[in-house]
Design brief:
DNA repair, disordered C terminus, 21 strands, Rossmann fold, DNA damage, isomerase
């Protein structure tokens, strides 16, 4: 970015200290940031013939008042004002809600301009703006900016005009002419002019297309450059292990590996053998067999004389993984230890000492693994499970416990391709897209709240067969804001219903870690038959005997989360069921319930979830590493994202990109981001 763009906003004529402070509140400090600030929508004052305007489309209509306004009141302080208007050859009704003061201003035969939503069936405009006199002599399209008091949209339009007149010719264009020609992109100056002062919708479309491509390209360049630096400069551990012993271990497994597992294991072992540090994301749907893949990688590390660490989000999951690995490695000389906050006193001291001496090959634990005092003798492989639940900082601390160990991140949250290449563009991605043979599909049903007694009868049938059930609720206690059945109420209801027959447990986020542990242990040992819980149960519990998953107020959950919860059942030999109890009011809510009953593929669900909810809420955590784009949306603009990624990969691997003058603008943007600074590689 050149000097003109880096000047403070006070360099713009008409911006004083007070306005500068107000702009700073919305993240604008420099001239460049002001010019780059995008409107979030546009008001279209272009007049169209009502014959071609679609139902519920926004419209601007100029005409003459044909009938005196009629004002009616309803409810507390609510009003409806209506009048007839002759617009060209149409006699239409204009309705204004809660603006009674307009009655005195509207006069017969007066020219008015109405902006509102067109109800084609009733020949009515629901007006949200009424202007007296003819339509304004504007381009027809006016930008609307997101502002906070004391700023107004009008002020922002004025400031943009001043900034553009003063600094418009100094706007640098980082895109080389060859790329602009290849995609017929307008230059940066023209794009920003059309963004703020569009003359036509087509001009605005071309401006956005150009700005989205540039934004995605710069982001992908950072990702690809980061990937290249990590590969070229961060020499990792070279694992050298006996193929014979590894093959013997694989052939001794009590089940047949799927083709997907074999392919993914091959990709991981190739990374481990190479001198470059592995940085790989393993995606696998619930039940696709990620644990076995992790076990093979950990075994390969142990055979190479290195230690492996597996970090998981909960103590219960850590214990389950430790047990599973102990069973898998029963016939080998691999030593396994568990390290969680519950491991205390002498036991903890012993584990820490053995880790430092190197007598422990594999340690499974929670964030306790990254605490001070945990020293490894020779850490060569770090695996994190449900990686998006750990912050970037936590993962970095674990990596630094060794000298550039190989890193494998695992997740059972299927991440759609568009998000994977956005959030994890600096990583290699492996996908387990095949389920182990014999795993039964969980049958999913959607029922309404009034059918709850039938659901309870169904649960009882399964309990009589010796099975168990989960009942998941969105909230712990009653909320005035949401009419949501809560865990405590449901627990009371079930205790009453099954009194004397079955034991009902309750689990939620306000219980202490020890209390949660006790409840989960009782459930996994079948001392609790029905577990009523909030979503704390979502990750990390394996109870093969549980065959029913009931999700109360299911419309409150995203598809990805519903799928995760459904994955808690169907882990044994018996047929399992997922029952969604929901009365969704919106079409989107109903569509989500339908999708859940029809689709078992987590990746398909994840794509649908993304379409319905957008990327912001997909992970449900700020620590996911997802960037917030100014112009583009990775979901709706995924084609541009794919093109930008392909171009970025080509550029970064070409010598010309790093030396030719044509790419100086892109290189300057990369350097300005700080991502190429070795200090910030993490």
């Amino acid at each position: 970015m050149n000097e003109a763009m880096q000047q403070p906003v006070t360099a713009v004529k008409g911006i004083g200290e007070e306005t500068a402070a107000a702009l700073a509140d919305i993240g604008i400090a420099t001239v460049g940031e002001l010019l780059a600030y995008a409107p979030y929508r546009y008001d279209d004052y272009e007049q169209k013939d009502l014959a071609v305007v679609r139902h519920e489309e926004k419209v601007t209509v100029e005409g003459k008042v044909y009938s005196a306004p009629l004002l009616t009141y309803y409810g507390k302080k609510k009003s409806r004002l209506s009048f007839r208007m002759l617009a060209d050859r149409y006699l239409i009704t204009v309705v204004c809600f809660n603006r009674p003061y307009l009655k005195e201003k509207i006069a017969l035969n007066e020219t008015v301009t109405v902006i509102g939503k067109w109800d084609r069936h009733r020949q009515t405009i629901n007006a949200y703006e009424l202007r007296f006199g003819p339509a304004p002599e504007t381009t027809g399209i006016e930008p609307v900016y997101s502002v906070r008091s004391p700023l107004t949209v009008k002020t922002m339009r004025r400031l943009m005009k001043a900034a553009f007149e003063q600094f418009g010719e100094h706007i640098p264009d980082p895109l080389p002419p060859a790329l602009r020609r290849a995609y017929r992109l307008v230059d940066k100056q023209e794009a920003l002019r059309a963004l703020h002062f569009p003359r036509t919708r087509e001009e605005l479309h071309q401006a956005r297309r150009r700005l989205i491509y540039e934004e995605f390209l710069l982001y992908q360049l950072k990702m690809q450059a980061l990937r290249r630096l990590m590969r070229d400069e961060r020499r990792g551990v070279v694992h050298s292990f006996s193929e014979e012993r590894l093959s013997s271990f694989l052939s001794g497994l009590p089940f047949v590996l799927t083709n997907a597992q074999r392919r993914v294991i091959g990709e991981i072992l190739a990374d481990m053998r190479s001198p470059r540090q592995m940085n790989r994301l393993l995606q696998g749907d619930v039940g696709s067999g990620k644990t076995v893949v992790a076990a093979v990688a950990l075994y390969a590390a142990a055979l190479s004389g290195f230690q492996g660490a597996l970090m998981v989000p909960t103590e219960i999951l850590a214990e389950q993984h430790a047990r599973s690995l102990a069973e898998l490695f029963a016939d080998t000389d691999v030593t396994i230890a568990l390290l969680t906050s519950s491991v205390k006193g002498k036991q903890r001291k012993a584990v820490l000492a053995e880790l430092e001496e190197g007598t422990i090959d594999i340690v499974v634990g929670t964030h306790a693994l990254i605490q001070e005092g945990v020293q490894f003798h020779r850490l060569g492989l770090v695996i994190t499970d449900e990686q998006h639940r750990f912050g970037v900082e936590q993962r970095r601390v674990l990596r630094e416990k060794g000298h550039a160990p190989d890193v494998l991140m695992m997740t059972a949250t299927p991440i759609p391709r568009t998000l994977a290449i956005t959030a994890f563009g600096d990583m290699d991605v492996s996908v387990l897209d095949e389920m182990p043979a014999g795993r039964k599909k969980v049958e999913t049903y959607w029922v309404k709240h009034h059918q709850f007694s039938r659901v309870l009868d169904f649960i009882e049938k399964e309990l009589r067969r010796g099975h168990q059930a989960y009942v998941i609720c969105p909230l712990i206690e009653e909320s005035d804001k949401l009419d949501v059945q809560n865990a405590i109420d449901v627990h009371s209801q079930l205790v009453h219903y099954y009194r004397g027959k079955y034991e009902i447990g309750l689990m939620h986020g306000r219980l202490s870690a020890d209390e949660k542990e006790r409840v989960m242990r009782a459930f996994s040992e079948n001392r609790i038959h029905v577990l009523v819980s909030t979503t704390v149960v979502e990750v990390g519990v394996n109870v093969p005997n549980a065959t029913v998953m009931v999700i109360y107020d299911a419309e409150r959950f995203g598809l990805a989360q519903l799928h995760q919860l459904r994955g808690r059942v169907g882990r044994g030999d018996a047929q399992s069921y997922c029952i969604l109890i929901a009365d969704p009011k919106s079409e989107v809510g109903k569509e989500r319930m339908r999708i859940m009953t029809e689709t078992a593929d987590g990746f398909v669900l994840a794509e649908k979830d993304l379409e319905l909810r957008g990327p912001g809420d997909f992970f449900g955590t700020k620590q996911s590493g997802l960037p917030e784009f100014r112009y583009g949306d990775p979901v709706h603009d995924y084609r541009i994202l794919e093109v930008a990624r392909r171009d970025a990969a080509k550029l970064v691997s070409s010598a010309a990109f790093w030396r030719d003058e044509a790419y100086a603008g892109l290189r300057a943007e990369l350097e300005a981001s700080g991502l190429l600074d070795g200090e910030k590689l993490d």
